[in-house]
């Protein structure tokens, strides 16, 4: 499967629109609301998703949309745009520029195009099936790491794990070389650029991980669930991202 140039251009336009909606609010003293799942949401989250949905409605009105803030439209469509306007809202609220807008295109249940856009630093990773992942247009590559004991492992935080998952993560992290906390989608971007080796997380929604898969895998890495299955529409949200496929089996074994 090859991703069309026009879909890549559309994803770029969506990222531009999200960034334009987000930047005026960064470190601006905006109000923070709490959603039903106790996660924060701001005017920037809603404005960015609304801007992206407006573009999709104008350009691809028959495609489906799944977004964090405004739900699902035409979710039975063969082509689905999956939007997380600010992945890492807690970092955004704290004024930390390690959040990102996530944009994915899923075709027939498989993520084929993904964007991680950091609109403050001006960093944009783009991955598409059949093409190398790029950072601001230049190809990037994961670094080799054959052994879990040599791996630099990242995760966003312990509160995202359940009790069983946290115990499993503890076994994997004990076997790794070094640990990094925080980062949300930015960890996966750093892995694609060759700065991290492994990310293990639990409790992710489709809009949290769909865009990450093409970015990581287009840079030579691999993303699977905790059983080693590919990630897609039916995935439960337990994810492993590895810079080197040789890390997958040891990570799964350590997770138990």
Structure description:
With 256 residues, this protein is of the alpha+beta class. It has two domains: 5-139, Fructose-1,6-Bisphosphatase, subunit A, domain 1 (Fructose-1,6-Bisphosphatase, Chain A, domain 1), CATH 3.30.540.10; 148-255, D-Maltodextrin-Binding Protein, domain 2 (3-Layer(aba) Sandwich). It has helices spanning 5-22, 43-59, 89-93, 163-175, 185-192, 206-209, 212-218, 248-255; strands spanning 32-34, 40-42, 64-67, 71-73, 79-87, 100-107, 110-118, 123-128, 131-135, 138-139, 152-155, 178-181, 198-201, 222-225, 239-242. It has an eight-stranded mixed beta sheet, with helices on both faces. A five-stranded mixed beta sheet has the order 12-11-13-15-14, covered by helices on one side. A two-stranded antiparallel ribbon has the order 1-2. It is globular.
Cα-atom Rg, whole angstroms? 17 Å
- Strands of the widest sheet, in order across it, are 4-3-5-6-7-8-9-10
Based on DSSP secondary structure assignment, what is the total number of beta strands?
15
Taken as a percent bin, the fraction of beta residues is: 25-35%
The separation of the N and C termini measures 34 Å
CATH-defined fold name of the largest domain: Fructose-1,6-Bisphosphatase, Chain A, domain 1
Return the CATH architecture of the largest domain.
2-Layer Sandwich
The CATH fourth-level homologous superfamily of the largest domain:
Fructose-1,6-Bisphosphatase, subunit A, domain 1
Number of domains: 2
- CATH C-level of the largest domain: Alpha Beta
Catalogue the unreliable spans.
none
Helical coverage, percent range: 25-40%
What is the typical, i.e. mean, pLDDT?
95
The outline comes out as globular
In terms of structural class, how would the helical and strand content be classed?
alpha+beta
- The SSE order reads HEEHEEEHEEEEEEHEHEHHEEH
């Amino acid at each position: 499967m090859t991703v069309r140039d026009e879909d890549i251009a559309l994803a770029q336009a969506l990222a531009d629109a999200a960034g334009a909606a987000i930047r005026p609010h960064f470190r601006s003293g905006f109000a923070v609301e709490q959603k039903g799942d106790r996660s924060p949401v701001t005017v920037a989250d809603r404005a960015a998703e609304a801007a992206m949905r407006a573009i999709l409605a104008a350009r691809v009105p028959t495609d489906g949309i799944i977004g964090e803030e405004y739900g699902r439209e035409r979710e039975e469509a063969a082509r689905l745009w999956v939007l997380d306007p600010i992945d890492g809202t807690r970092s955004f609220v704290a004024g930390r520029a390690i959040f990102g807008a996530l944009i994915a295109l899923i075709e027939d249940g498989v993520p084929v195009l993904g964007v991680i856009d950091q609109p403050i630093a001006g960093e944009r990773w783009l991955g598409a099936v059949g093409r190398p992942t790029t950072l601001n247009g230049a190809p990037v590559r994961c670094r080799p790491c054959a052994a879990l004991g040599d791996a630099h492992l990242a995760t966003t935080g312990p509160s995202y794990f359940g009790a069983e998952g946290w115990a499993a993560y503890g076994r994997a992290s004990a076997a790794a070389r070094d640990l990094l906390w925080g980062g949300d989608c930015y960890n996966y971007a750093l892995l694609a650029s060759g700065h991290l080796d492994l990310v293990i997380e639990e409790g992710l929604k489709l809009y949290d991980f769909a865009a990450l898969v093409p970015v990581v895998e287009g840079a030579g890495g691999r993303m699977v669930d905790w059983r080693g299955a590919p990630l897609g529409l039916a995935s439960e949200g337990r994810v492993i991202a590895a810079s080197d496929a040789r890390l997958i089996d040891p990570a799964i074994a350590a997770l138990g």
